[in-house]
Amino acid sequence: MATATASHGSAGGGIATQALTAKPNKIDSKVLLGELQKVYTSLCPRGYSTLPVSVFKSYLSDTQKVATYDEHSGNEEDVKETGVQKWVHKVFGHSSQSFSAEKLLSDDQDITFDEFVSYHATPTNSALALPDSKEKDWSRPLNEYFISSSHNTYLTGHQLYGSSTTEGYINVLSRGCRCIEIDVWDGDDGEPEVFHGYTLTKEISFRDVCKAVAEHAFSEGGSLWQGGAGEGPVIISLECHAGPKQQEKIVKIMREQWGDMLVQGIEPENVENLPSPLELRRKILLTFQAKYLPPPPKATPIDVTAPRVPPPAVSDSSSDSSDSELEELAKKANKQKPPKAKVTRALAALGIYCSSHHFPSRAAQPFTEEPTSRIPNHVYSFSEKVFANLHAQHAESIFHHNKNYMMRVYPFGLRFSSSNADPTEFWQRGVQLVALNWQKCDEGMMLNEGMFAGEGGYVLKPDSYRPGGRGIHEDKRSLDLTIVVIAAVNIPLPEKSDSPKRFEPYVKIEVHTDAAPGLKKKTKAKRGIECTWNEKLEFKGISGIVEKLTFIRFKIHDEEFGRDDLAAWACIRLDRLQEGYRFVNLINNEGDPTNGLILVKISKRVY
What we know:
The protein is of the alpha/beta class. 23% of the residues lie in helices and 23% in strands. A hairpin with a 4-residue loop joins strand 22 and strand 23. The two termini are 39 Å apart.
């Protein structure tokens, strides 16, 4: 079987893909070995049973699009020894198989088939090219990055009656999330509590949440980029419904639990420019919306006013209140307009680099003419629905605003099942903080996984999306993409399937771009968890391409009895998609890394 080392934890923040891609694949499946043997044989000159190094180098350059030359020479024809040595060290430094790397420094030896397979098993031969941690630019201001963000982080399931737990915070932080949400209310015993107001979700201690964040916000090891949480700054989106007295308690708890990690001691009014993630390494920042509301009353299943917590007999599986009844209650609560915010000075003083400001949802003037839009550290926060309405009126000014200032978009309040909108719609408009419901592995979270794989939660925006960049349309290009789906092994079964013999997988490839949505092509269905297709899927002349904001999704579905259940998937940003014969590492339909692999041949042209 072909296997890849999997990491614990679900997909969504890029860590699952990073873990799969960072280690060698073990290739001993007859299906994959047979297909690689065909490639190897086709490369061997007539009369040769092994592959000359010179031919292998040409294969690397022409098919795999690998630069083995000295990058300082700028001459692909001049394959300098120093460049080859550098490439050999990068590619085979992790290889556990017996590849004689020195052969690449000479043209008078041959590459055996085992060595050819060894090369294809290395992490650098994945379809995904992970970013080089030493080359990533962490020095730009916060507004110039897309930042991996979570909505209602404390929930682990349904938005109306799912469990609230500190595990929600531990989970998303370990998966690479760098902006989390805390909804805090007055607690009955004088201790602030966290829960989803006006729902049946159970409260948890604000102090416990802060403790969990303190313990899991950052990984040890001294790397901004490394797997897990990393060391990039964490932004806390604090939705404060507490009164002045418990706001003082909130400030005290944050200072006690976070200590030197909490950014404080700077007057928000004195901020002239936003710092970089590098300057904020291992720091916790605060942005908040303060809404002073009286604590909602305790609820019963028949209370139609303001449900807060379920009685002991109510659970997800045994509630007497139907989903539709709960949804009606939530709709009523969603329409309630909170009174004017009352914020204590102590809490307001902590909104230093991300100071929340209100933008009138029915404003007629462009964003750039709103007085608060010129405050260097302001953050506008909108639901996806409000953002869509504003964008219909102010598309150009929103884009230019987001070059210089921060914006957050979060899911519409009636997404009760924790579903998500398409995050690319907001990234395309320059929104830095696209908050998603991490409780569910849906299309939105798949795209988030593709965006942030190996990025430490921060992706530098394309040049045209940053200050001094050109307009919204100038940098868009066109794409020709061809992917030959060769074979797949260790395909995980769909959730409701238990028989590999009845499993009928097919591969669907989607090009996800803002300008041309719905670009999908698929192979024919086969049978079993190891299949061979050798089918070519072509996408020609796709316009409106921004490489960093275009995603290629590989999905395997089960065609048995027309069910079309999702079995496995992978999502790769176009700028990270490597050409040539590559392996795609698969994630299952629940978001967990697997041993599944697809062998593909990729060619792309961006022009």
